[in-house]
From TrEMBL:
This is ABC transporter ATP-binding protein. Pfam families: ABC_tran, oligo_HPY. Residues 8-256 form the ABC transporter domain. It is a peripheral membrane protein.
Length: 334
């Protein structure tokens, strides 16, 4: 995926935390690319490393050891001085967090906060920055933006606050937007509005977007490419149509099986994936999904031994690799 339109290219990204109980490899050898105007969906259960990945791209990990390559618009970000990274955050890349209240300051008005953000990055005067803040609020569909710019974060509803976050993220016109579970706390109607808003702005500005979610329904709506994570690693990558029509990895299939179907008559109970995610402190020697993998139910001893002792590499056809010793391609078990 190294076309001229590739804005972000991440290779062999590894993030390790030193903890009192030992070292935690939260992200292990991850690679992906995002093109301008397109959305990469990153999906996986809680604890699979989605947020750690996005913070690593933004260069926001302090107490962690980060290795690998993060190329943004042809420029290597790993190893850059904090000052340089700070300049790029906002102008080149921005992030929307799951909980807007944690990233908006309660004491300042939203207008002041967006204006300050703009001033820091563009050195604009106070008046121009304030005008840009009102413009940014209008762009994300906040009614009466001039008046609302004088309100504080708690005076907004959850959905409107998320719009304020988007306004702040986009006020400096970044090329890359990372949205970490931007709609999880919202009800379905508001969720749809926020996703539509991001899609509209993406089209207008040819934004590259990374949409992080545990909801495959959201991925199906917005993503062009999908990366499925499990235990800090990529287990499958594909374009969205291929991933939904022909998932190759048993974990992806299990995720898809747990989705409610449109043609469901409502009688079928939802199937959750049984078992829990792997420990990152003492990862299993073989495939991290083995204890939960339906392929191993009643499997021959030889197959089980291979899965439990040999870690599968991310491999397979170009554009659709899977980390599994026995992936399913075109409906056929290899
Ligand atoms: N500062 C830290 N120190 C130690 N471990 C950490 C730290 N930050 C994250 N982790 C661990 O890294 C793993 C991945 O965390 P991460 O927040 O990326 O998960 P996630 O996929 O975003 O999950 P969720 O869907 O719940 O947001 C978790 O096991 C978490 O405990
Ligand atoms: S490698 Fe084995 S245990 Fe792991 S997902 Fe594939 S079949 Fe299942
Ligand atoms: Mg997270």
């Amino acid at each position: 995926m190294n076309t001229p339109d590739t804005l972000l290219r991440v290779q062999d990204l590894t993030v390790t935390f030193a903890t009192p109980r030992g070292s935690v490899r939260a992200v292990d050898g991850l690679g992906f690319a995002v093109r301008r105007g397109e959305t990469l969906g990153i999906v996986g259960e809680s604890g699979s490393g989605k947020s750690v990945t996005s913070l690593a791209v933004m260069g926001l990990h302090t107490g962690a050891s980060v290795s690998g390559s993060v190329m943004l618009d042809g420029r290597e970000l790993t190893g850059l001085a904090e000052r340089e990274l700070n300049r790029l955050r906002g102008r080149k890349m921005a992030m929307i967090f799951q909980d807007p209240l944690s990233s908006l300051h309660p004491y300042y008005t939203v207008g002041e906060q967006i204006a300050e953000h703009h001033r820091v990055h563009y050195g604009s005067g106070r008046r121009a920055a304030r005008a840009r803040a009102v413009e940014a609020l209008a762009e994300v569909g906040i009614p009466e933006p001039r008046r609302r710019a004088r309100d504080h974060p708690h005076q907004f509803s959850g959905g409107m606050r998320q719009r304020v976050m988007i306004a702040m993220a986009l006020a400096c016109e970044p090329d890359l937007l990372i949205a970490d579970e931007p709609t999880t706390a919202l009800d379905v109607t508001v969720q749809a509005q926020i996703l539509e808003l991001i899609a509209r702005i993406q089209e207008e500005r040819q934004l590259a977007v990374i949409m992080i979610t545990h909801d495959l329904g959201v991925v199906a709506r917005v993503a062009h490419e999908v990366l499925v994570m499990y235990g800090g690693r990529a287990v499958e990558q594909a374009d969205v149509d291929t991933l939904f029509a022909a998932p190759a990895h048993p974990y992806t299939r299990a995720l898809l099986d747990s989705l409610p179907r449109l043609d469901d008559d409502g009688d079928e109970p939802l199937r959750a994936i049984t078992g829990s995610p792997p420990s990152l402190l003492t990862p299993p020697p073989g495939c991290a999904f083995a204890p939960r993998c339906s392929q191993l139910t009643g499997a021959a001893a030889e197959k089980r031994t291979r899965c439990e002792s040999e870690r599968p590499a991310l491999d397979g056809p170009a554009g659709h690799p899977a980390a599994c010793h026995f992936p399913t391609y075109e409906g056929v078990n290899s």
